[in-house]
Design a protein that fits this description.
Length: about 425
């Protein structure tokens, strides 16, 4: 008997998942609860077990393909005897199969049903009177991009806007006019899949939807270096490495408490700035497959030692791909730091829909003028804050950074503030 297994509901708010790896192949025997397939959602890999014992008859979703909740993943041939013995479980599964398309189709009023397109592209299409259902997407998996809108036939009969038709085809003309590369010129073609595709989509949405504004400040971290060195011998005796990040997290939380509008997310659908009551700080970190942002929840309740332990644990499990979806979602503000490779200056891209992200750069010893006019050494670092200028003014960002700077230049305040 053939049993069609569809992508189950794998988390609140998850409408689809990308097939990262099949753990079986067609013709393999499989037992119930045996790992079947690894699916990526919001940068977290979810391993889905087999619901039946039998044989893999057909795999319907190739690696790299996105499958909506309720979409067909695999057909499993079950033994006739096993089918009668497990007649009860299929009963609830059968009605569940047609329901996911209804849930997935719910957001469709924002654009054509079944179309893969970002909210930004959908809005542009609505403004231009373009039917997304008539466009063939050029993005991964047929996703419609902004450039594809310029090829829509529904855009040309718009005499009311004479300037739009000439401008719109320009973005789409360049890719089609480009001559194919000679094979000798290509070293490697790397598919944009998995975590890298999720990152690409998030970055595109952030840059298209938010109005980025960056503010930079220099911090004299000389006292921070002394305090960190003194505390390290106490914290690191338990096998935890004490970096500067725990101190920066505490300074950021202090800044967010003083300027709560930066501890917020944007609800574009309702045109609201949602100021958050909790302080869940995302820590951008490099992983083998790309950038990830594990979240330190309730950061305001943690000590420096606790923060060091949590950050180290998240980083280690992130590098091995063992973080859960819950550990990678829900941040209210993000810190991006490359540690010793932090460079001099960068303009971080927002972790949308958050309204702020702080770039932390390396600490360097340089000569400075002192208050008495003498010149002496100091440990200096730069902070670069990117904001969504639609909802946060530059002066608010400058005041926030000034607060963070104050706590980092006199880190003893961090412990007095939390007492």
């Amino acid at each position: 008997m053939a049993f069609e297994f569809r992508l189950p509901d794998i988390g609140e708010g998850v409408a689809e998942g990308e097939v990262v790896q099949w753990l079986v192949k067609e013709g393999d025997a499989i037992r119930e609860d045996q790992p079947l397939v690894s699916v990526l959602t919001d940068k977290a890999n979810v391993e889905i077990p087999s619901p039946k014992t039998g044989r893999i008859a057909k795999i319907h979703a190739a690696v790299g393909v996105k499958v909506k909740v309720g979409g067909l993943l695999v057909t499993i041939e079950t033994a006739p005897g096993g089918a009668s013995a497990s007649a009860a479980p299929p009963a609830p599964v059968a009605p569940a199969a047609p329901q996911p398309p209804v849930a997935v189709a719910a957001p469709a009023p924002a654009g054509a049903a079944g179309v893969q397109a970002s909210p930004f592209v959908r809005r542009l299409a609505a403004e231009r009177g373009i039917d997304l259902g008539k466009i063939r997407g050029s993005g991964p998996g047929g996703r419609i991009t902004e450039a594809d809108l310029g090829t829509s036939p529904s855009q040309t009969p718009s005499p009311a806007s004479p300037t739009s038709p000439p401008a719109a085809p320009a973005p789409s003309a360049a890719p089609t006019a480009r001559a194919p590369l000679d094979a000798a010129e290509v070293r490697e073609r790397i598919p944009i899949r998995g975590v890298r595709r999720v990152i690409a989509e998030h970055m595109s949405e952030a840059t298209h939807r938010a109005a980025h504004f960056t503010y930079v400040e220099e911090v004299n971290a000389s006292e921070l270096v002394i305090v960190r060195d003194r505390m390290a011998k106490h914290v690191e005796k338990d096998g935890v490495r004490l970096s500067y990040l725990p101190f920066i997290v505490k300074a950021v939380v202090a800044g967010l408490k003083a300027h709560p509008r930066l501890n917020a997310t944007v609800d574009d659908a309702r045109e609201e700035l949602v100021v958050r009551a909790k302080y869940h700080i995302g820590i951008a970190a490099a992983a083998p497959d790309g950038l990830i942002v594990p979240v330190v929840r309730d950061s305001d309740t943690k000590s420096v030692g606790q923060l060091a332990q949590i950050i180290q644990s998240l980083a280690e499990r992130g590098r091995s791909g063992k973080l859960t979806r819950a550990e990678l979602t829900g941040s209210t503000f993000t810190i991006s730091s490359l540690g010793a490779l932090g460079g001099v200056l960068a303009t971080p891209i927002l972790n949308y829909p958050e309204v702020g992200i702080l770039g932390v750069h390396k600490i360097q010893r340089r000569p400075v003028y002192r208050a008495d006019g003498s010149i002496g050494p100091a440990d200096l670092m730069n902070l670069s804050l990117s904001l969504d200028h639609r909802v946060v003014d530059g002066v608010d960002g400058a005041q926030f950074v000034a607060t963070v700077r104050q706590y980092l230049e006199d880190p003893h305040q961090l412990f007095a503030e939390m007492a």
